[in-house]
Predict the structure.
Amino acid sequence: MTPNEHHAVDFFARETLPAPHVTPSQAERIAADCFGITASAELLGSNQDANFLLHLADGTSEAVLKVANCAFHAAEIDAQDQAADVIAGALPQLRLATVLREPNGAPRAATVQTAEGPVIARLLRYLPGGTLAGPRHLSPRTVAAMGTIAGQISTALRSFEHPGLERVLQWDLRYADRVVDQLLDHVEEPARREAVRAATADAWVQVQKVADLLPHQAVHLDLTDDNLVCSPDDHLKSPDGVIDFGDLTNSWAICELAVPLSSMLHHDGVEPHDVLPAVRAFHAVRPLSAAEAAALWPLVVLRAASLVASGRHQAAVDAGNAYVQSRLDLEWRIFEQATSVPSVVMTNLIKAAVGLTDRRTEAPSPTRLLVRGLSPGDIATLDLSAEADVMDHGAWLEADSEDRIAACLLADGAAAVVTRHGQARLTQAPALSATAPATVATGIDLWLGTPAALQAPGDGQILETSPGHLALTSGHHTLTLSFTDAVWSSQPAGAWVRAGEELFSLPAKARVRISLQQHDAPTVPVFVQPPYAPGWLALTADPSTLLGIPTSGPASQPDLLARRDAVFATAQEHYYADPPQIERGWRHHLISADGRSYLDMINNVTPLGHAHPRVERAVSRQLRRLNTNSRFHYSAVVEFSERLAALLPDALDTVFLVNSGSEAVDLGLRLAIGATGQHDVVAPREAYHGWTYASDAVSTSLQDNPNALATRPSWVHTVDSPNSYRGRHRGPAAERYAPEAAAFIDNLAASGQPAGAFLSETFYGNAGAVALPHGYLAQVYAAVRRHGGLAIADEIQVGYGRLGHWFWGFEQQKVVPDIVCVAKAMGNGHPLGAVITSQAVADRYRNQGYFFSSTGGSPVSSVAGLTVLDVFRDEDLQGNAVRAGEHLKSRLQDLAGRYSIVGAVHGSGLYLGLELVRDHNTLEPATEETAELCDRLLGLGVIVQPTGDHLNILKIKPPLCIDTAAVDFFTRALDHALTELGHGRE
């Protein structure tokens, strides 16, 4: 039979479909003899075809030579070519591997002889850029893009018809049960073989329940990571092209989504819930029906099972196919992931993601309350959420915190204490965790204040019983009771009980875990991870009704982010596109509403750590006494001002108190201009100083204001950013910055515009913790002063001991400024800032009138500031900045030696920057990669953000209380994320 005869492939008639045995040299001859192309041929991987990339002599890639499997005939191949053309016409933004055509429109194809017989060879358009193949982590953005493409192609092919679509392929999931059954013996390990058999059987049953409702159409059927191509210019690996139409057929339309979902599961760090962005994206383009949503995850399981069985079979019949051999492990990984969560749970998640959630089955109203004689009004509810007061002061980290808190409520008079169904319990969260911990309770816990009997809430059958455990039917659910005391039920397994019949008696202080789950559901864990909670909770009911108290009801999830955007000016940006809802902090941890603790690596606003008890007590005590403005006479403002001035050189002896760093810089500029009578200001570029008119005017960070340099008022003059890493002068040449800045100031004065002030950060913060060149401030301060100006030090980010070896950044430069602006760390999160200068400069301000800040220097602010200084001293936080900072910097430098994307490690103490570049010579900033890294680190339990004009530097400035365990956790997570994202040393 020739390839031109129409006889569509039937896998079950052939079973073995080894790829044509065509060598690169043979491919080169085909290209020359059939298509007139002289090129070298590079073998590309394929299961059942032979693909070669043709390189011309000048190194350019001409096309892909595709030699079809001998089982595939002309009508099938024509269908593939026409389908690709249809999609290309419908989706011009998508790159397609269409067949190359002659001027007359005919495909560039030929029948060639191979060892397997005559086959069709043709030239396809080459799409540069590479595919998503490999273990690299897939970001939510990439996952969503894969779903969008699948939805677009499904829509484009909806009306496509062709005789060549009528094929029986092993990859068509309509035949998955037969494929697995036929090939399963090739899986040699008994345990794996049985796992595949069982998973296939279960998934097939689920699909058959809705099979008659699933629409059919033409499908590409192979939109996997291997066949989705990324633009060469896309550093984040987001697909924009599609290749390989070899599996085109007519099948269930939903298979177009199931196939790419399965291919995601072998990628590093991707687990089942991570595919949901693709489901939502597909649904937005091509809406899913309820039947398709129900079939989707069972089809993913069937695809995974087919991959395992087919991969082992293909490896046996095509032993020389390196591509097939290399995929065996990842195919098993796909299967493991696809079956790691019950299909019903994933189906519930999918339905929730696209708004097709089934109505939950509620618990039956009890004929008798579960606890005999317990009045619902005497039961206290124990809130264990991140927002609960009982979680204060790190109580959630205590091993017995739940029992301890419940005991306190019982001691206060409650007859019993009960938790909430479906609540994310902070008590279940470790302080440091690279995965989302299982925090969501699928049942409730009950503590009894006095001895009590538990009785059947309704008629039911005892399903099982053992010491400390009992399960019985309760309407459509199974009621499970577990308790700490090894008490046997008086009822044996299999017995029928009537409502009100005693099940067992428990002593005072006993703890009972109560759950209700659907009869036919898989065993529901006591606690589940928040990403999977909607899927698991749909299988349960709230047992609270059995105690006579109101149920929690379905967890309402109002779109808090949308509400924020609707009312809170969007210019006030938030971290992350999909941010966690942070509701608590403790030391160097931030805790989300779903009970996950994140390591905080960016909060220099809280140097003592979040929720420091001494600050809380001091502020609370002062609020109970007095809070007013500083025009009143009270001790706290005097004591705080004295303490603050004592930290600075003797000449800086006068303090102004304000609310923020922006106000401090604004006031500092006004002081300098007022004292000198000179209105011009000089400041380095690539710096941020605040948002008020004056502080914004001297801010030149392009990320904070992209038009910063073009919109400066005439009184602001900028000099080069003295960045010794990526500035105009690098390395030892950075010593040129200071004389150049001094010359600029001299020339400004010579032109009749002497600067009234030179304003600079003392350690370059916004540029990524880059130290100023040695002696820079000494030379520039001297220049501005010789023309009557003053030197202003912006210590807002680096002051207060963060640099470790120096309390103030200007100490590292061995200079003394005329005015110091400080904020952030002063109040440990309380709004507090200060300007410290000399008496003489402060007195000149009187010529402009008086100064007043309503809450700057208030009793509460002053007490907060005093307490922060006390804790700094008592807990040796500056010393910890040295110790923890040196350890952290050493670990970061180790990573820099292992990952080519790390260009430099900047900074001192606990003010560090990790700069990421694509090229160590050009220093091309890795902006997109840095954002992707921050997103991945969030998934690994770390909050960190980019900084710098190119947003390519991780700003690392955690609370100063951070310990070695947290530092090591961070660097391990960073190491892990860099590996997952493919940034190893080249």
Notes: Residues 150 and 257 are 6 Å apart (CA to CA).
